Amino acid sequence: MNCVTDIMPVQKITKEEIVRIAIEVFRKQGYNRTSMNDLAQACGLQKGSFYHYFNSKEALMREVLDTLHQYYKRKIFSIAFDDAFTPKARMEHFFKKQEPIFTQDLTGCLFGNITLETISMVDEFKATIQAFFSDWIEAFQHIFLADGCSDEKAIQLARQSVMEIEGALMMMRVFEDIDLLRDTCSTVLLKLKH
Fold first, then answer.
1. Which long-range CB contacts under 8 A does 39-45 form with residues at least 24 apart?
2. pLDDT in tens, 133-142
3. What is the pLDDT of residue 101?
4. How far apart are CA 40 and CA 63, in angstroms?
């Protein structure tokens, strides 16, 4: 007796692929508006199967934040420490690498967005978010130091620059205008002498 049934094939997916997909889902929908079912569907998995990889949305977001932080450290923040280039060339390259990430679908900075959504509700993300922003400030500080600023002035300019960019990203989203980010990056570049 032959019986034909419609059986959904077992989806083969790695944790790393789930994290990559989750980055895009969280980027577009935000943390609070994204359900485990949304994430499972985006990965082509049944919700029950999804829990095999991550037991909660919080656990997945921690992995997303850690993955993105490591990416930034390797691919973007490291630009600031390349002493083969002038401080201005480093900052320009930094902005050039960062812009496509921030302007994709006008979603801004995932770290900034998650901070606004979760800082008073999900304490477990705070350390990773702080580490990300500290590393970003340190990268800018290194550029300002290379430009001849004192330690005190370099940290002040670095903090101010990161805050200005994050504010510009928020306004870019509100007004759907990439030039707001670009203008702010140009203003940051004007703080450099070399």
1. 43/11, 43/13, 43/17, 43/18, 44/11, 44/13, 45/11, 45/13
2. 999 999 999 9
3. 94
4. 16
What's the N-to-C CA distance of the chain in angstroms? 81
One-character DSSP codes across 30-62: -STT--HHHHHHHTT--HHHHHHH-SSHHHHHH
Task: Quote the tokens at residue 192.
Answer: 């450099």
Q: How far apart are CA 139 and CA 142, in angstroms?
A: 5
What is residue 12's predicted lDDT score, i.e. its pLDDT?
Answer: 81
**Angular region, 148: left φ>0, alpha ψ -120 to 50, beta rest:** left
Block residue for tokens 């992995």 = 63
- 79-134 confidence digits (pLDDT tens): 999 999 999 999 999 999 999 999 998 999 999 999 999 988 888 999 999 999 99
C-alpha pair distances (Å), 35 with each of 31, 32, 77, 119:
8, 8, 31, 18
Handedness of CA 20, 119, 155, 95 (dihedral sign): positive
